[in-house]
Amino acid sequence: MNKTVPDSRGYFGEYGGKFVPETLVNVLHELEDAFERFQKSDDAHEELSALLKNYAGRPTPLYFAKRFSEKIGVRVYLKREDLLHTGAHKLNNTLGQILLAKFMNKKRIIAETGAGQHGVATATVCALMGLECVVYMGEVDIERQATNVKRMKLLGATVIPVVSGSRTLKDAVNAALRDWVKSCQNTHYILGSVTGPHPFPRIVREFQKVIGEETIGQFKEAEGGLPDAVFACVGGGSNAAGMFYPFSSTDVPLYGVEAGGRSHKPGDHCETLTQGSPGIFQGARSYLIQDEFGQVLPVHSVSAGLDYPSVGPEHSYWKDANRVTYVSCNDEEALAACHTLTRYEGILPALESSHAVGYLIEHAADFAGKTVIVNLSGRGDKDLGIILGEVKL
Ligand SMILES: *Cc1c(COP(=O)(O)O)cnc(C)c1O
Fold this sequence. Notes:
Structural class: alpha/beta
Number of strands: 14
Oligomer: single chain
Bound molecules: pyridoxal-5'-phosphate
Shape: globular
Number of helices: 16
């Protein structure tokens, strides 16, 4: 697999690019330049490494889940991103991008958020650096992720409810992009996944690839060699890209698990890669859920973090190249997996991560006796209301 993507125009094969209003073209160029310089700066690297270690808690453990493994008949290691500060992998990216924003002398930060984890991770790094923070969040998500809204406010961020469209993640991205068109002189947009126009998919992957790099070393130490398969959930695709990218030049089978929505509602699907088709959305060409006229269709998932009708362009590239297998897990299977992992390991996974666990449980027979890794992208405290049936969707 070619690891040198994206090319200089921001394309992963046929996917990616930069489909934005004229006003953003320059600021994206500026960002690309700054990122190149940032990547070459020893000082920047040292600062980021120190923060990842001492502030965020890296490396996160690679944990052998013994009781869960015995239960399903597959030897399962969990990459514990749930133990990262703020409870999900999102902080790897926001720490990198806040340093990049400082590098560019930007004084104000904006972000979009779905489940609120990226909003919390952004508000956290803004508090850490003393920068102004504005987070756009769909009204529906504000209701189902109330705890994270409180956390963001406590951290000093302004949370702006988005009332247009389906009032979820995609609408929050639109609102953030509209803000950025007006404010880009002094504002950096910390995009939360490997999505959006070039250079975001590359920047976010570079800041998240620490997950896979650590995992390869940790697995080698624990077992020797490489695992038989690796699983990660896919919303926009950042935790999966961070895990998969370092594995992409090996021949380890990789599984990206998308949200299948409610089993009794066949119209639900966030299965962008298994059900969608290529089109242009929010700045990039990628697979998306659209109708015959190219209009994006409403999607549904029990987990707000997976409730997104498109996916990062690198995943589209991996799909067409058959390097990653994209599959799905529905709401009910994810909820059941969440209960199982909690009872067998004392680890309460985020509903997003529960999709990866749920797929493995449902297909355990295919991996019987094998040794696999699941990226546990985050912890489930934020989802308690939904898991316990107290919050209606
Ligand atoms: C945001 C989030 C996701 C989905 O985003 P990706 O970019 O696909 O990783 C998955 N898991 C958790 C815990 C999240 O917070």
